Amino acid sequence: MMRSKSYSLKVILIIACYGLSAGGCKKLIDYVKGHGDGDYKACNIRKITVYNYSPFDTAHLHVDTLVYTFTYNKLGDPVSVIHNLVTTGNPNYFFKYDKYNRLSQSVRPYEGNSNYERWNKYGYNNKGQIVKDTSYAFGQMSGGEPQPSPLLAYTSYEYDTKGRIISYVDSLYAYGTFSFATIHNLAYDANGNLVGPAYDNKLSLNRTNNVWMFITRDYSVNNPFTALQYNDNQLPLSVYGGNALSLIIGAGGPEYRIEYFCH
Asked: Is the Cβ–Cβ distance between 17 and 28 less than 8 Å?
């Protein structure tokens, strides 16, 4: 997650997709295939709007629209994801970075920041990869800072030669007592996508930032859905039934509309 690497990659990707031609964007995706941990920082997600009704339901009888607003630091990494309907299972999101500009913490507080749903602290290996994740659940905030809770989990990660997570182990504890551990194994196909879902042939939304790839555990080249519309950078704009987006924002719905900062 060192930014020097991301900036070099960004320049290469912009050149690869110069002119935004179909051929140029094909070269971009080919490049991403060979660099599993690389992010495409020429675009950042600005807003995701979730409509909890079908776009074909003209009456909109159950309108409960969620609007997620994204903010970033000067290096283009996410600082917060704030939305208008904070509930259990869907709090806000805040990110902190260390002196090396690596993700060091994330916290998901409720409205008013008096309690949080989850607080994660990250540890790195000498390759700059997150290999340890200490996670607290349902704790309190004090002076704007999360405090440890009795519900604790440790997660360890393993990566392949392309820097993609291929295995992680969750070990859960409650009130100091070990509960159980769960092993998760991931595999990628020849197209650079996680084995299982059906993918489109456009650039994955997660690829806009390494943080999204990490928190979703998905370093796929393409999207596990087909969007109704894409922008000139081959990123999804309008999605019907793309539940994979809920991995980033925390809650899903029938229709998503995505806005970006592109430069």
From this structure: yes
239 SS3 class:
strand
Full residue range of the structural domain in which residue 41 is found: 3-262
Secondary structure class of 38 (helix, strand, coil): coil
pTM given for the model: 0.85
Q: What is the pLDDT of residues 215-234, one digit of tens each?
A: 999 999 999 989 999 999 89
Q: Are strands 229-230 and 177-185 parallel, antiparallel or unpaired?
A: unpaired
* Distance spanning both ends of the chain, measured CA to CA: 21
Average of per-residue pLDDT values in the chain = 85
CA 181, CA 171: separation in Å to the nearest integer? 4
C-alpha radius of gyration, the chain, whole number: 19
Task: Tell me the mean pLDDT in the region 129-151.
Answer: 96
From residue 40, give the alpha-carbon distance in Å to each of 29, 62, 205, 233. 10, 36, 9, 10
Q: Choose among 130, 122, 186: nearest CA to 1.
A: 130
Residues 205 and 221 sit within 8 Å (Cβ to Cβ): no
Give the C-alpha separation, 48 to 258, whole Å: 5
Total domains in the chain come to 1
